[in-house]
Here is the input.
Amino acid sequence: MWSGGDDLPEEVKESLLEYEKKSRYLIKRSEDQQVIEDVFDKATKMALYKLINKGALQTLIGVVKTGKESRVYWGKKADNTDVAVKIYLTVAADFRRRLPYIQGDPRFTNVGKGIRNIVEVWAKKEYRNLSEAYKAGVKVPQPFNLNKNILVMQFIGEEGKPAPTLKEVDKLTQKDYRNVIEQITLLYQKAELVHADLSEYNIFKWRDEVILFDFGSAVSREHPNADDFLQRDIENLNRFFSKKGVRTQQTQTLLKKVKGE
Here is the structure.
């Protein structure tokens, strides 16, 4: 909770108190205090204020997704553009399990041992992964800004309601399967990345397109475990689409296709 005793400018306190109040209305009362304390610690409030001050964000409207490691909010920029604001929890000990996805990636070295250091590297990693994927033409949410443990990116959906994931779509087609394979192929060959945590839970289907998201785990294809991660991604997709009655290709065939062999 925001404390009046914090040694911060009065205008900063007022701005951040307003965001806290708006957030509270969208959380069960019994969970309210703990969630606010977990998400909006002092350092996070300051990071949020800096994003507001630089024009990257104007307002937070409500929570759209909660998880053990982060909260995603629907927000708006000054020009009324919808954005997704992902705030990584600095109290989430589960982030230590994510170290294997950081260590070995040549883009990220000298990671501090403290949980806040790990969380901020993870946020930086997702921002960079999204940036590289977006630049390569992969269908992902466009990343806009990053500050500490807060990532601001394109909101996929409308009026604060996120697009459905593949898990939430009733009917999937052969075209959907082909589109997903095309995206992970582009991700590997052009962005030189492997998602490493791909499943039906982190692929949107929106306006007849598939959009990959949740890129914190993604690694450079130079990572020592990149091939294993890629195979697991493909196996996850084949398992899911097969259950949906969609014809799939053999894992080894797809591995060669994605890698361009």
In short: The domain at 163-259 is CATH 1.10.510.10 (Transferase(Phosphotransferase); domain 1). Residues 115-135 form the longest helix (21 residues). The chain has two domains: 10-161, 163-259. The CA atoms of residues 69 and 94 lie 7 Å apart.
